[in-house]
Specification:
alpha/beta, two-stranded parallel sheet, 40% helix, 8 helices, seven-stranded mixed sheet, globular
Length: 243
C-alpha cells in the first residue's frame, strides 16, 4: 500500500484541541478501520486545518463532526476500493464484542488480513471455515480456551445477510445456500484492472457476539472494518516492479 496523505481544510471556527479530538474519532472510525494488505507506510498522515474564517456556535459542532466523519469514511473507503488489484471489498460489521471498540477493530482488521479468506473471496468461494478460522485465530492469541468459549457462546456469523453460524455450529443448508453466497460475492466483484470502481457494493460479513457478552469493564465493541481481497493482479503489481 502506498503512502497515504490526507488533508482536510475548513473555514469553520473551532479550537485546536476540539478539532484534534473530532479528527481522532473520525480517523479511528475510518482510516484506522481499513486494510488492503495489512501494510502501512511510516509516512501515513491525516491532517485537518481550519482558517477560522466562519463564525460558529456550539450547536454547530454536531453537524461539523458528522461532516468530518463522512469525509474521512468516504476517503478511507476509496482507498480500499481502489487498492492494487482489488476485486472485492469486504465490509466486516462487528457488534457486541466483549471489549472496547479498539479491540473489536483489531479483530476486524485481523479478519480482513487473513490471506486464506482474502483468496477465497477473490475466487467467489464462500469458504465459511476460513472466516470462522480467522475469528478463532485472533481470539486464540488473546484468550484461553475457556474464555473463548464464553465469548462465543452467543456469537452469530452472517455472510451476505444469511446466518452461517449460530448456537456454536455452522448453519449450512446444501448447494442452494452455497450458490446464493457465491452469487453474493459475484455481485460485489470489481474488475481487477478497471480504471475505476464501477460500483460501491461489498461482500457483507457480520459478527454479533450477543448482547449479554460484555467484558469485566462493561464495554461492548461495535465497529465496521473494510478490507480487500487478494488477487493475482495484486501479486503481479507488487512483484513486477523495482523500487
Amino acid at each position: 500500500m502506498a503512502t497515504m496523505l490526507s488533508y482536510i481544510f475548513t473555514d469553520f471556527t473551532i479550537e485546536k484541541k476540539r478539532l484534534q479530538s473530532i479528527l481522532t474519532h473520525a480517523v479511528n472510525e475510518s482510516f484506522n478501520s481499513i486494510s488492503v494488505d495489512g501494510s502501512e507506510s511510516t509516512s501515513d498522515t491525516v491532517v485537518a486545518l481550519s482558517s477560522n474564517q466562519i463564525e460558529s456556535e456550539e450547536n454547530d459542532l454536531a453537524e461539523f463532526e458528522s461532516a468530518i466523519l463522512e469525509i474521512c469514511q468516504g476517503l478511507a473507503s476509496d482507498i480500499v476500493r481502489n487498492g492494487e488489484g482489488t476485486s472485492h471489498v469486504m465490509r466486516i460489521d462487528i457488534s457486541n464484542y466483549p471489549g472496547s471498540d479498539q479491540e473489536a477493530r483489531m479483530l476486524g482488521r485481523s479478519i480482513a488480513n487473513s490471506a486464506l479468506l482474502k483468496c477465497a473471496i477473490a475466487g467467489n468461494d464462500p469458504n465459511t471455515g476460513r472466516l470462522a478460522s480467522a475469528i478463532g485465530s485472533f481470539l486464540g492469541r488473546l484468550e484461553d480456551a475457556g474464555t473463548i468459549e464464553s465469548k462465543t457462546t452467543n456469537m452469530i456469523i452472517k455472510l451476505g445477510g444469511r446466518t452461517i453460524f449460530k448456537n456454536g455450529k455452522f448453519v449450512l443448508e446444501g448447494d442452494d445456500v452455497e450458490n446464493e453466497l457465491s452469487q453474493h460475492m459475484i455481485d460485489a466483484q470489481l474488475g481487477e484492472q478497471d480504471e475505476y470502481p464501477k460500483h460501491q457494493r461489498c461482500v457483507e460479513i457480520g459478527i454479533d457476539f450477543g448482547t449479554s457478552t460484555k467484558d469485566d469493564s462493561g464495554e461492548c465493541g461495535n465497529v465496521t472494518v473494510l478490507g480487500s481481497d487478494l488477487t493475482a493482479e495484486y501479486v503481479s503489481v507488487n512483484a513486477d516492479y523495482r523500487s
